[in-house]
Design brief:
Blueprint: H1 2-11, H2 13-83, H3 87-94, H4 100-145, H5 154-161, H6 163-187, E1 195-196, H7 198-213, H8 225-230, H9 238-251, H10 254-281, E2 298-300, E3 303-305, E4 312-314, E5 320-321, H11 322-334, H12 344-353, H13 356-371
Antiparallel strand pairs: 1-5, 2-3, 3-4
Helix pairs in contact: 2-4, 2-6, 2-12, 3-4, 4-6, 4-10, 4-11, 4-12, 4-13, 6-7, 7-10, 10-12
Length: about 375
């Protein structure tokens, strides 16, 4: 019996070797595949955890950024309105002085300078803060995942972020001086007695913006944001100097300039929309029995739709004496807009904070500096 089994095994030894090799190879392959699968699962889990952690850190940075922007925007707006104080002129005009014509001319320039400085200053502040805080956020994230020493200390953060305070002070004053020159070139030739249309008001803002964009002596405010940030600051710390140079490279990039200019243009569009409501209000009847006006004024493509009436009035054809329009525009800045919820500085701040282009810019900067 044993000889029969031995002979059987001897005759089929190659088959047993091949079969054993096949099953052995399959076992090894399955073990290797299971090992690689576990490694892939661990890698994906780690990657997902890091992505989640990074996303939470960015969202935290974004919240901090928005809070800081809202706080500093209020300070910047108050600083601008303090430098360009129209209330003093208004009080003098109430006394009917002999030089009232001169005072009206001064207020004309000051009102338009206020609006233009707010548009530029709030846009520059928003971009600068988003760039700074996302650079810091990127470094802090790298510090959290890197076991080496921190690349940016708390003291360095404080020094770096304090640069924005220079913009609130001397930077805003420099911006006011530059923009006031452009405003005078556009607004001073227009007579106070002239009847102007909404299109002419809009053209004033675009003319001022064009002059500033092509300013060869003082430079375009959008392209010299670095000047308002560090021009009045002496930097002796090597690490701070390196951080500032990185920030300068970002602020001087075409992408940042494009986002800032787009934000400024959008601010002017918002102001023109509010001024359009002043022209539209001229058609609102005093007697509600004659006509009911639907929810504020519905303006579409330059026309005012009156609730009960089926007629459309072209707001662009409405003319208002310039001198009568000035106090109304001034009230939009200091008091409530036609929507009755906020004034122009607050409206511009909210609009810029929610701007998708601004958010995308911050996300891109955070991504770059958190991965280096």
């Amino acid at each position: 019996m044993f000889s029969t089994v031995r002979n059987f095994l001897h005759r089929h030894r190659r088959k047993f070797f091949v079969t054993g090799a096949v099953f052995g190879s399959l076992y090894l392959l399955m073990s290797y595949a299971q090992k690689k699968l576990r490694e892939w699962q661990e890698k994906e889990a780690k990657k997902f955890f890091e992505m989640t952690r990074k996303k939470q850190h960015f969202e935290s940075t974004e919240r901090t950024c928005n809070q800081t922007i809202l706080s500093l925007s209020k300070i910047v707006s108050e600083s601008i309105l303090g430098i360009l104080n129209t209330e003093e002129i208004v009080q003098k005009l109430k006394d009917n002085p002999e030089n009232k014509l001169l005072l009206w001319e001064q207020m004309k320039v000051m009102i338009f300078t206020r609006i233009c400085v707010l548009a530029y200053a709030l846009s520059i502040l928003q971009v600068t803060l988003r760039v700074q805080l996302n650079i810091v956020g990127g470094y802090l994230y790298r510090d959290s995942v890197d076991e080496q020493g921190p690349q940016i200390s708390s003291e360095l953060q404080a020094k770096y972020l304090s640069l924005c305070h220079h913009f609130v002070g001397q930077g805003v004053e420099d911006l006011v001086k530059q923009i006031e020159k452009a405003v005078k070139r556009v607004v001073e030739p227009i007579s106070l007695k002239k009847k102007i249309t909404l299109q002419e008001v809009e053209q004033m803002f675009w003319s001022i913006q064009t002059i500033l964009c092509t300013d060869t002596s003082d430079g375009d405010p959008v392209k010299k944001m670095v000047h308002y940030l560090v021009q009045h600051t002496e930097i002796t710390d090597g690490k701070l100097d390196a951080l500032v140079k990185e920030t300068m490279d970002v602020l001087e990039s075409d992408e940042v300039s494009s986002v800032t200019m787009s934000s400024v243009t959008r601010c002017f569009s918002t102001v023109v929309d509010e001024v359009a409501n002043l022209f539209a209000a001229k058609f609102v009847p005093m007697n509600k029995n004659h006509l009911e006006v639907a929810e504020d004024h519905v303006i579409t493509n330059g026309a005012l739709k009156l609730g009960a009436s089926r007629d459309f009035v072209d707001v662009n054809k409405v003319e208002i004496h310039f001198v009568k329009l000035l106090p109304a525009i001034n009230e939009l800045i200091t008091k409530n807009t036609s929507k009755g919820k906020s004034n122009i500085p607050d409206m511009l701040t909210q609009q810029l904070t929610l701007n998708d282009k601004m958010k995308l810019l911050g996300a891109n900067i955070y991504e770059v500096f958190s991965n280096e």
